[in-house]
């Protein structure tokens, strides 16, 4: 009899890690970035783990600590947008640090130059990102 293949997300939903194993934070993303890790990779890892957090207290812990500057104003603004977006989606208090002036850009930032990306990004970017001048497709915030 053939075994049904499942996705990583399905397996993790059925076998969630213990709460003490969920240690990823937005402050950690900034720390990893300052230490040379690719920003997008660090964000993806954070989002993977954030999706496993099963309660509001755990989710709030992941976004509450203020990330120190990464050295790139775009990344600092992105972290502010992500904190605000996740707080809104999960009905959490928005972290105060997320609306500090250095969490906003003076110029628009499109994360890709791929043809057609700008139109999709403009139409789909969540409000927390748009108001900071960051344009990403909404689906890029979902991990499967």
Unreliable stretches, pLDDT < 50, 5 or more residues?
none
In round numbers, the mean pLDDT is: 90
Roughly what fraction of the amino acids lie in strands?
Answer: under 5%
Number of helices: 7
Order of helices and strands: HHHHHEHHE
Q: What is the β-strand count?
A: 2
What is the count of distinct domains? 1
Sheet having the most strands: 2 strands, parallel
Span from first to last CA?
27 Å
Q: Rg from C-alpha positions?
A: 16 Å
Structure description:
This protein is mainly alpha-helical and 144 residues long. The mean pLDDT is 90. It has one domain (24-141). Strands 1-2 form a two-stranded parallel sheet. It contains 7 helices and 2 strands, in the order αααααβααβ. 46% of the residues lie in helices and 3% in strands.
Question: How would you concisely characterize the structure shown here?
Answer:
With 144 residues, the chain is an all-alpha fold. Helix content is 46%, strand content 3%.
Characteristics:
7 helices; two-stranded parallel ribbon; 2 strands; 46% helix; mainly alpha
Fold topology:
Elements (H helix, E strand, L loop, with lengths): L7 H7 L11 H9 L4 H12 L5 H9 L8 H17 L19 E2 L6 H8 L2 H4 L3 E2 L9
Parallel strand pairs: 1-2
